[in-house]
Amino acid sequence: MRDLSRRNLLALAAAIPAPLAFSGPAAARPAFAQGGEAPAAPWPDRPVRIVVPVAPGGSLDILGRSVARALTGPLGQPVVVENHTGAGSNIAFDLVARARPDGLTILVGSDPLAINPALYPRISFDPVRDFAPIAELVRAPQVLVVKNGLEARTLADYRRLGQEAEGKLTLASQGNGSIGHLGGILLGQTLGFNTTHVPYRGGGPAVVDLVAGHIDSLLVTLPAAIEHIRGGRIRALAVTGSARAASLPDVPTVAESGFPGFEVVTWQGLLAPAGTPEPVLDRLHAETRRAMATPEVADNLRAQGFDLATGSRAEFAALVKAEAARWPGIVRASGARID
After folding, report:
1. Biggest CA pair distance of the chain
2. Rounded CA separation 193/317 (Å)
3. What per-residue confidence (pLDDT) applies to 60?
4. Beta carbons within 10 angstroms of residue 184's beta carbon
């Protein structure tokens, strides 16, 4: 790509503030600089890994791979994606929380990071204490999609079928405790009927089974389903944002469909282990923002249904803190619990 040319890399290097070269006091250097006697090694000096807590194909995986490709050139090291699934994303969260705070292990985090401490009785990490937010990347609504064989073309149709099925209609999600799971509980309460929840390990596998007709419906983050919606392989009934998604302008919101006030929107962003040096975090934030602004990344993510975020590190940290305080009440109200 043209933006990864030697000339542009040199220009990026020249634009990096002096502290990012780790020439300041030892306290400002990465954790791998020992004793302060010699200048710290240029960062990064090894490949960077981006940990994705879901299976390949879901929206977090799509985002993680887009960012990894865009960061490889500017960082001057390979940026690789590792999928660590299971336990409602807690395996990946714990892995990153315990990783060496050198900026070489990064998490693509989202709502479960803030939700899970209220959902699971035994959690080994704290979403605020154990992570250093780098950059919020995107936000996206959930989308209610159904298999083509289901006789529902509107949310009203879906409500009628759900009430007639008396709990037998299946509604899948990205996994137990995911925003799709909790959003599905809230949607069922709003529509006035119960469904049979079918959890998956990520949005990608759930969409595949919906296309195959193995489940009736799915509430999932929009980018994980949009290509199948456009291809006519599944049908979208409603999105859960406050406004229609630009990528699906013909699909109404839940609020438009007769249920005002209903809104469930996911956030996704990069986080490092707590204790990662500030210069490293600043470098990652700056390079991520540049990467997200390139047409190759921005246009692709928007086309998939993401809304791009542009806030500072401090704003993202405030969001994570607010989300960690918000979700326990919703979890308690929903009655959801995972042992």
Report:
1. 73
2. 37
3. 85
4. 26
Tell me the C-alpha distance between 109 and 325, whole Å: 16
Entry pTM = 0.74
Between CA 73 and CA 77, with CA 74 as vertex, the angle to 5 degrees is 60
Q: Tell me the pLDDT tens digit for each residue of 203-253.
A: 889 999 999 999 999 999 998 899 999 999 999 999 999 999 989 999 999
| Integer CA distances (angstroms), 57 to 3, 35, 65, 283, in order | 27, 44, 10, 28
Of 41 and 196, more confident: 196
**CA torsion, ordered 313, 319, 320, 326, to nearest 10 deg:** 170
CA distance 296 to 209: 30
In tens, the pLDDT along 96-135 reads: 999 999 999 999 999 999 999 999 988 999 999 999 999 9
Any idea how long the chain is?
A: 339
**Which band of pLDDT confidence, cut at 50, 70 and 90, is reported for residue 41?**
low
Residue 290's Cβ-count burial label (10 Å; 0-12, 13-18, 19+) is middle
Express as a percent the part of the chain with pLDDT over 90. 68
- Asked whether the beta carbons of 107 and 131 are under 8 A apart, the reply is yes
Structure tokens at 91: 């395996």
Cβ-proximal residues to 282 (8 Å cutoff; 6+ apart), any chain: 17, 19, 20, 313
φ, ψ (nearest 5 deg) of residue 307? -105, 125
Q: How far apart are CA 106 and CA 102, in angstroms?
A: 10
- Other beta carbons within 10 angstroms of residue 11's beta carbon come to 10
C-beta of residue 178 within 8 angstroms of C-beta of residue 113: no
